[in-house]
Amino acid sequence: NFSLEGKTYVVMGVANRRSIAWGIAQALHNAGARLVFTYANERFEKPVRELADSLDRDDSLFYECDVTDDEAIKQTFTSIKEDVGVIHGLAHCIAFANRDDLNGEFVDTSRDGFLLSQNISAYSLAAVARESKDLMTEGGSIVTLTYLGGERVVQNYNVMGVAKASLDATMKYTANDLGKHGIRVNAISAGPIRTLSAKGVGDFNSILQEIEERAPLRKPVTQEEVGDVAYFLMSDLSRGMTGEILHVDSGFNILG
Ligand code: 0WD
After folding, report:
1. What are the pLDDT digits (tens) for 69-105?
2. Do β-strands 245-248 and 183-190 pair in parallel, antiparallel, or remain unpaired?
3. Which of 7, 25, 130, 238 has the most CB atoms at less than 10 Å from its CB?
């Protein structure tokens, strides 16, 4: 079934209109879904509400949820349960590392910088999966966003590459745990897209340029292209898949 009519999805990590999470929100909305947005702190409330207002539907919901705070995560999903009851999936589009750690040599990463990126970018998936699973009583689909830098070395991606390797493994172990509840967990490995987070990665322009010159499709991917694959993963079309990493990267990952 292609339609997401009558279904509700939580989208975590819309910062602005360039966010990959916003591309996902639009794809799910176009398929008929109701959306629940969470944002890291009150700074993002207004931009997220303004974006959601541009959708032709007025039943979206909004919650503040800093994923470094276990109580905040618990409280968020308790509130969502009270307000909507059942959810059918969740898009985890959250990552963070100190800017200083996204330049130069990985080996210089501080202990604090390392743990911070693991906390926000990898552990948070396990935490939100745990607190949201009881809301997915009709089965569900959890989608996270990863990057090639977790599978192999990408210049400057450094501590975030290690966090993505951790996220990929977190996704698989979580998929193994939640499968028996009818909940699937998969990752989209997106090609580079110019967003707020991408600004922090050193020499991001040359990463994008290499895609234009060498990727099989010879162009960077868009938020819409990632959004459409997230829609596929949220829909019944992907019901036989869990624990999988789908590359939406113009084919770049197949190159040696
Ligand atoms: O090239 C890219 N942009 C790629 C991004 C390629 C492949 C993967 N990704 C991943 C990112 O690593 C991330 O996991 O996609 C995900 C979404 O990233 P994005 O759309 O590129 O970036 P952005 O629009 O900045 O959204 C990330 C958001 C944060 O925005 P800020 O302005 O804080 O960087 O992650 C959220 C926040 O909204 N976030 C948090 N949310 C809850 N609690 C927290 C937190 N503690 N920290 C960051």
Report:
1. 999 999 999 999 999 999 999 999 999 999 999 989 9
2. parallel
3. 25
Q: Is the dihedral of CA 110, 172, 153, 193 positive or negative?
A: negative
Active site residue 147: yes
Q: Enumerate the domain spans of the chain.
A: 8-254
> Do 110 and 159 touch, CB atoms closer than 8 A?
no
In short, whether 96's Cβ falls inside 6 Å of ligand 1 is: yes
**CATH class (in words) of the domain with range 8-254:** alpha beta
Taking CB atoms within 8 Å and a gap of at least 24, the contacts of 161-169 are: 161/106, 162/106, 162/114, 162/117, 162/118, 163/95, 163/97, 163/117, 163/118, 163/121, 163/122, 164/95, 164/121, 164/122, 166/118, 166/121, 166/122, 167/121, 167/122, 167/125, 168/245
Residue 1 has pLDDT above 70, yes or no: no
Closest ligand 1 atom to residue 160 Cα is 12
Probe residue for ligand 1, chosen from 10, 20, 208 as the CB with the greatest number of ligand atoms within 8 Å = 20
